[in-house]
C-alpha cells in the first residue's frame, strides 16, 4: 500500500492555491501558538490573568482568518496545549483580567 494515500492535505493558510500536509500544518500552528505565548508573556508583566487573556485574544484573532478545516485543526492544536479558544473561555479570561486590573489599580477602577 502506498503511504502517500494516507496523507491528508489541507489548503495552506498563508500561501494561495497551495496545500500542506495536515501534520505539517499542525506543527506550524503549534509553533505559532508558542510565539503567541511568548509575546503574551512579555506583554503581561508576569500576571497570569493578563497572559491568558492576551494569548486567547491572539489565538482567536488568528482563528478568525482560517477556513473551517484549518480553524478546526487550529482549535484542536490549541486544545492539545490546554487552551480552549471558544467564546466562554475567552469571556472568563477577560473577566479575570478585568478583576486583576481592578485589584492593581483600585483608584482608577472607582472612577
Summarize the structure.
This protein is mainly alpha-helical and 111 residues long.
Task: Describe the protein in words.
This protein is mainly alpha-helical. 68% of the residues lie in helices and 5% in strands. The chain has 5 helices and 2 strands, in the order E-E-H-H-H-H-H. It has helices at residues 22-44, 48-64, 68-80, 87-104, 106-110, and strands spanning 9-11, 19-21. A two-stranded antiparallel ribbon has the order 1-2. Helix 1 runs antiparallel to helix 2, helix 1 (22-44) crosses helix 3 (68-80) and helix 2 runs antiparallel to helix 4. 17% of the residues are buried. The mean pLDDT is 92.
Which features characterize this protein?
single chain, 111 residues, mainly alpha, two-stranded antiparallel sheet, 5 helices, 2 strands, 68% helix, elongated
* Main sheet record: 2 strands, antiparallel
- Helix count equals 5
Task: Determine the strand fraction and express it as a percent band.
Answer: 5-15%
Average pLDDT across residues? 92
Query: What spatial order of strands do you see in the largest sheet?
Result: 1-2
Query: Quick one: overall form?
Result: elongated
Low-confidence stretches: none
- What's the alpha carbon Rg, rounded to whole Å? 18 Å
DSSP helix fraction: 55-70%
The quaternary organization reads as single chain
Structural class: mainly alpha
Tell how many strands the DSSP assignment holds: 2
Which H/E pattern describes the elements? EEHHHHH
Straight-line N-to-C gap: 70 Å
